[in-house]
Each structure stands twice: as C-alpha cells, then as structure tokens.
C-alpha cells in the first residue's frame, strides 16, 4: 500500500546524489509544482528524492538525507524554496535554491499535505498515528481528551505551521483527520476534514477555516462525506472534491456553496485549475485513477482520450503556458498534454541511470532506471492476462476470492497485481480503516494470515527472482 495514509484514508524515500527509481515496486510521482522558469518539481517517493524537470528535458535529482522518507506533497514559497512532506518519517523538508536540504521533525504522527502562505510560512496536515482505530476508539482515547496545546509537537491529528524562525506551531483538530489544506487570498487557511465511520455509521466531512491564532470555524458539514483536494480559486473561492458524495464543490469566501455532480464511479485523485481569458474559459482539470478530464464553469465534465497504456492517473498540474502535466501509478515517467492536444512522455534521466544493479532494503527494491523500464515491460508481458483481466492466481483454497471481497475495496486489481513487497503484513494491516469506511467487514486474524501467506507467495519480492536475474 504505497501511498500509505493518503490512499488508505481517502480512497502520498524523501546526500544529494542521482540514484535510481524503484523497479520492483513501480510508483509514479505524488505531486507537481512549477517554478518561475517553467521547471516542474516533483516528488520521487520511491527514489527518496525531490527532483526538477527543466524546460529542456534535463532532470536534477536531490536525494534526501533521511532514508526511506517517502516524500509526498510539495509547495513552493515566493523565494523559490521547495517545501515538502516526508510522510514515512514525520518530517517536513525545505529545499533551498542552492540545493541545501533542511528537515524539521513534526512529532510522532504522519504528515501528509503541505501549503505555503504569502508570508512564506509552511502549513501542513498531520494524521494522528491512530488511523487504524475506529471512530469510537478515537473518541474515548486520551489523545482527544487531552489535546496538546499549540506550539507543542504532537502525535495527534492537527494542522501545523512552521514560522520564519523554523518553529512549529500546532493546531489540534476538534475531531477527525485533515485531508487537505489551501490558502485563498488574504492568507485565509481552509482545511478539509474526514471523520471516519465504522460498522454502524458512515464517514462525515467538514469544510473548515483556521485562523492564524488557531481558531477553527465550520463552514460546511456533510453526512457520508470524504472531502479532499482543496484548491484556491479566483476571488477568494476554494474548490474541493468529495469522493463519497461524487461531487466537486466550490465555496465562496462567505461560505456559499455550489456543487457539481460527477459521472457515476468518478473518484477524483487530484485537481488543478487553469484560468482562461474570461471566467467562462476556466477549466478545472482532474485525474480520477482511470481518466484525465476537466470541468467547465457550468459543471460539464469532459474526459480526454489519452494513449492506452493501462496506467491509472494520479498527480496533475496545469502549467503557466497551459500544458497539462500528470503522473501515473505504474509509469514512472512524466506525461504532458500540450495545448495542441499532443501527448508527450518525458523519460526521466534514462541515459544517466542505465545499468542493472538491484538493491533490496526491506520492502524497497531499487535498480538503475534504464533497467527499471525494461523490467516493467518484461513484467507486463509475463503477467499480461492477470493484469488485463484483473484475475488473481488461484491457490486451491479460494484465497483469490477473499482478495476480491476484502482487498479490492482498497485498491484496484491492477495495483495489487503489480505491487511488490518483501512482506505484505503492514500493507494488509493498513487497509483496515479503509474497509471500515466502505462498510466492509474487517479481516479476521485468520483471514489476515491467509492473505499475507497468499500475497507473499504469489506477489512478494521473493518470487521475482526472474526479474532480478534479468536486471543483474
């Protein structure tokens, strides 16, 4: 479960040297940001780096000091510094223009999203570290009964702010988990909140505003809701998506709401707004795992036909010149849709990363990037029917049926079929909270053990000797 909390809750590692992308466990970039020169900065979760794709196609890789940090969200301040989340190690990073990386520990929770205000202060969301508990467990825990005071690092669900001196100020949530954060003009902080459900109740969503003094105000509240993807719009408005209710919403600065229904089954991953010559020319671009598309100011949804390589879309950014840049779950390269309708695929530093050396570190398996591309093609060829039809290998005990019943609510079949782990126990355990949101009975200890054995045997790193030998 590569995206960890971002995907398990809402269905996201981080010495500067040019190492390799992940081959045995392919995964694309979480997020993009564009600088003033037209360079595209992106996270390399599997490569433990923050990197930049220059307009001429060159890529500069900044490896992170902390191993296996898993960088996810990133933002840029007005001075050109890149702020980013190190999701797996509870740190916020800052990459200066001279290449220096500074890391700031946030406490024992899990940071996930980051945004920068007009003063250059970085704000981040942080999960509590208790995401596998039910809502009732959380309500009765000491974490909420004795919430930490601001300016105190915490393992509770909160929004944090890093001031100009590098000091962290924390603002604990009244309830639930923060799923995204954005700033409208005037430095107004907006936060989307998920209050997870359980077997007896559906999840609830909140749209809230947070003052600079740490005061929370509810703008909107919904039942059976999981809001995310806050995005600043013109005239102080903010956009957001809600996968549970199947809508995209817009809130005015005064809290007036407009909602656009999405086509059946659409579950938006990320959004990016492009402003046209007039308000009627505005487009809200989005990825939704399977599609690339946009919504016009009247709420009409248009899906864009793209090259059929079978990869699910993920991160997205509309650049200053109108190009749409997006990533895919299993295609490590960066994709670009030009204004002329032509698709371009940027091969990330292939010539600089040729080779066949494979390095295994627990769940991580890295190889030289050129070999990674060859290995992915070979992998797809060998397991084409499995991936195409979404069929899991029969083991004679019916475990493949259990996978379909209990695991596909968390991830699509292709992602599970192509994932590689040395041990599937942590990944299957992290699926529990998402099953609760979807109203699926949790795994019993016996079912968990059975699934771990099955995935370790058929889809674990130990089985991929033929891939490893090809790369060496």
Explain how this protein is built.
The chain is of the alpha+beta class and about 475 residues long. It folds into two domains: about 5-350, YVTN repeat-like/Quinoprotein amine dehydrogenase (Methylamine Dehydrogenase, Chain H); about 390-470, no CATH class. The strands form eight sheets. It has a four-stranded antiparallel β-sheet with strand order 1-2-3-4, with no helix packed on it. A hairpin with a 4-residue loop joins β6 (about 80-85) and β7 (about 90-95). α6 (about 400-405) crosses α10. It is globular and about 60 Å long.
Question: What labels describe this entry?
Answer:
472 residues; alpha+beta; Methylamine Dehydrogenase, Chain H; 2 domains; four-stranded antiparallel β-sheet; disordered N terminus
């Amino acid at each position: 479960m590569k995206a960890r909390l971002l995907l398990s809750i809402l269905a996201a590692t981080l010495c500067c040297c040019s190492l390799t992308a992940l081959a045995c466990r392919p995964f694309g970039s979480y997020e993009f940001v564009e600088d003033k020169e037209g360079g595209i900065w992106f996270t390399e979760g599997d490569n433990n780096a923050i990197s930049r794709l220059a307009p001429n196609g060159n890529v500069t890789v900044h490896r992170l000091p902390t191993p296996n940090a898993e960088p996810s969200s990133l933002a840029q301040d007005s001075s050109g510094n890149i702020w980013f989340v190190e999701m797996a190690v509870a740190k916020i990073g800052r990459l200066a223009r001279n290449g220096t990386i500074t890391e700031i520990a946030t406490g024992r929770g899990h940071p996930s999203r980051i945004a920068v205000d007009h003063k250059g202060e970085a704000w981040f969301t942080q999960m509590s570290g208790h995401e596998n508990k039910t809502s009732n467990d959380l309500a009765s825990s000491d974490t909420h009964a004795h919430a930490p005071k601001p300016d105190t690092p915490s393992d509770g669900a909160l929004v944090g702010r890093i001031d100009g001196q590098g000091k962290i100020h924390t603002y604990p949530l009244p309830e639930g988990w923060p799923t995204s954060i954005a700033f409208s003009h005037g430095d107004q902080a907006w936060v989307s909140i998920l209050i997870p459900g359980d077997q007896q109740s559906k999840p609830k969503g909140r749209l809230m505003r947070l003052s600079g003094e740490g005061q929370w105000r509810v703008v909107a509240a919904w039942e059976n809701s999981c809001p995310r993807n806050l995005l600043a719009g013109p005239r102080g408005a903010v956009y957001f998506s809600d996968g549970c209710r199947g809508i995209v919403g817009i809130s005015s600065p005064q809290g007036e709401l407009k909602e656009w229904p999405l086509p059946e089954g659409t579950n938006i991953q990320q959004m990016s707004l492009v402003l046209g010559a007039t308000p009627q020319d505005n487009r809200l671009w989005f990825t939704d795992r399977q599609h690339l598309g946009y919504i016009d100011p009247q709420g009409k949804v248009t899906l864009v036909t793209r090259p059929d390589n079978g990869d699910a879309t993920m991160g997205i950014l509309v650049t200053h010149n109108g190009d749409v840049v997006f990533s895919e779950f299993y295609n490590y390269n960066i994709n670009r849709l030009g204004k002329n309708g032509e698709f371009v695929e940027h091969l990330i530093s292939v010539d600089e990363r040729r080779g066949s050396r494979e390095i295994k570190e627990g769940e991580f398996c890295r190889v030289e990037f050129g070999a990674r591309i060859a290995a992915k093609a070979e992998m797809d060829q060998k397991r084409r029917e499995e991936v195409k039809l979404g069929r899991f290998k029969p083991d004679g005990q019916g475990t493949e049926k259990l996978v379909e019943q209990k695991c596909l609510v968390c991830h699509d079949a292709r992602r599970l079929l192509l994932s590689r782990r040395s041990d599937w126990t942590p990944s299957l355990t992290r699926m529990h909270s998402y099953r609760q949101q979807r109203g699926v009975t949790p795994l019993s200890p016996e079912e968990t053990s059975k699934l771990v054995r099955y995935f370790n045997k058929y889809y674990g790193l130990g089985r991929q000797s033929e891939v490893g030998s090809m790369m060496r």
